[in-house]
Specification:
The complex is a heterodimer of chains A (about 240) and B (about 450).
Chain A (H helix, E strand, L loop, with lengths): L1 H19 L10 H6 L22 H6 L33 H11 L10 H7 L6 H20 L16 E7 L5 E9 L7 H16 L15 H4 L1 E6 L4
Antiparallel strand pairs in A: 1-2, 1-3
Helix pairs in contact in A: 4-6, 5-6
Chain B lengths: L1 H21 L4 E6 L7 E5 L3 E2 L2 H21 L2 E3 L18 H6 L4 E9 L5 E9 L4 E10 L4 H17 L8 E8 L6 E8 L6 E2 L7 E6 L5 E6 L6 E6 L4 E4 L6 E7 L5 E8 L2 E8 L5 E3 L7 E6 L5 E6 L6 E6 L6 E2 L6 E7 L6 E7 L2 E7 L7 E6 L2 E6 L5 E7 L5 E7 L6 E2 L5 E7 L5
Parallel strand pairs in B: 2-4, 2-5, 3-5
Antiparallel strand pairs in B: 5-6, 6-7, 8-9, 8-31, 9-10, 11-12, 12-13, 13-14, 15-16, 16-17, 17-18, 19-20, 20-21, 21-22, 23-24, 24-25, 25-26, 27-28, 28-29, 29-30
The chains are: A mainly alpha (about 240), B mainly beta (about 450).
Chain lengths: ~240, ~450
Amino acid sequence: MRAGVVVSIVGHVGAVMMTMLAWEARTTLSPDAVVVVPIEIVDVAAESNVRALAEQIPEEEVAAQDTPPAPEPPEAAPAPTPRPTPPQQRTRRDEFDLSDISGLVDKQREPGRRRQEGAPAERTQRGAGLGTAEVASMEARIAALVQRHLQRCWRLPDDLPDPDRLIVVIEFQLNRNGTLNGQPQVTSPRNYSFDAPMNEAVNRAVRAVRQCDPYPLPDDPIVGEHFDIWREQIVTFQRRS
Amino acid sequence: MRMIQSLAGAVAFAFALIGLSGAAFAQVRVSVEDGHLNPMPIAVVDFLGSNAAAEQVGRDVAGVIRTNLDRSGLFRPIPANAFIERITALEVPPRFGDWRVIDAQALAVGQVTPLPDGRVRIEFRLWDVLAQNSLTGFQYTTTPDNWRRIAHRISDQIYQQLTGEQGYFDTRIVFVSESGPRTRRIKRLMIMDQDGANPFFLTGPEARVLTPRFSPSTQMITYMSFETGAPRVFLYNLETNRREVLGDFPGMTFAPRFTPDGQGVVFTLDMNGNAEIFSMNLRDRQRRRLTNHPGIDTSPSYAPDGARIVFNSDRGGTPQLYVMNSDGSSQRRISFGEGRYMTPVWSPRGDLIAFTRQSGGRFAIGVMRPDGSGERILTESYLDEAPTWSPNGRVIMFFREGRGEGARLWSVDLTGRNLRQVPTQTDASDPAWSPLLP
């Protein structure tokens, strides 16, 4: 009777645990792909946010019309498709450079950036099928993509008093299609209501996160599939002094 | 007992696993160190009007707001022909997607309504396009000819909401208007809005005037004039248009400036070639000597809290900047760079002191901290002189003179990147920026 109860409990707990594990087939990625594929990140227009709506409403057409067409609400925009930008528009700045990644990986080894080192090991245990090194390089790639994306949207605090102290950390979540999920949260500083320059620095960081929505991660051939790795971002905005 | 133990173990294991799966979604840590200093794109729509006259006022108001925001260097008004949505009613929230597509981060809309008594009501709303919410909304009732002032106030609201700092558009500039040939130059006091509109003379062409300064209440101006022969400090009341000499002193008085509470004036009194700094309470007209040195001590300017004064002295051989307590104690030098430092002005924000620096035959406008550290030159030319701060401590106005050219007013912001000429009808020098109008 007792043994039966124990077996039953262990069995139930086991069943519950099984529901928490996702067994992914390791078909999408061969190790070679990580190394070889050269990537170029191309935006339709660095100056604007026409990403999703570009194909539907060309700006010139709209400006020329007397009565603007009823545009679709932003939610109705189709999921981003590979953008039809001609190759000659690609700029050097946007080219993917492996040395960037190695630079970032190196930075992770700096004393102040230890927190990342433990994380990849946990992930390998839950059967995603990626090795520690692969996950680390993916995280570095995600960080590089997000960093480059956000740099276009962030207004530096250089014109605020004492800008070096204005360090802001924002946490936000993404949807599978790269759009913002919910509101960006300010994790640091904690109290800034009576600190006018810090208040403005926080505003600029939040505005950058919103302005940069949507994020280009789903379109990336390497990390695009790995939503579980890039769904949550913690971004530190700190000007280089 | 054993059962309980194993039960507890199983539950603990389950919780551990739940914890593990919770941590399964990684948080990618990103560090952003680079960005831009581009102005923020903003859409200011012509304000709606219920009849043709109101529509005209609406267009004028929106035009002044766009010019103000553009001149600040912090905003880039988007041309109206790029707008997709046509705003037809103030109460209806805009279609944010339409404004996002043209890259607008903020949207200002408004409406002008004529009232039966001949006045107009001007309403405005400011929307955050990215956050998709309303930032602020106001309405003013005024006479139709006062629309320009309302436009400046709305500009200040927008500026404050989007930069977190107080604006400076609803302000005035008093300056010295210069005309006539070089040998017989006519210098008259003139006042205008900060954007150059509504200029008019305060003094006649008979007497030369110099160094006008606003009182904190914006109702009084103190300046130096040769009206009575020798240079004297005058007070001018803008409400009553009356002027008076500040005290009857044995020597020349010049370089006046109000105390931060507006109750007193600090100035230089030159007796027998020895210039010293004095303060005077305007109520009881008691004067008090603050410096006592054989060298020339002049150009005093209070810190906004009134506790300290920055001034100019040549006691060390060349003109340099010194700081002292407001009772004259603890005098110490703060400028140690190359050249001569003059006309110090303490920022209304308190964090910086602006000055003119002359070195190598050129004049520059710069700023330093009150302890003398962090010196930065913002602009330099053949002759840049006499800085004055915007009330929010972000912009400095000064006058610039070219070789053989008349002086003109210019403004530069603290980054040194946004240098703009201020429109004046005549040559102009010695500007003084008022506090925000009440």
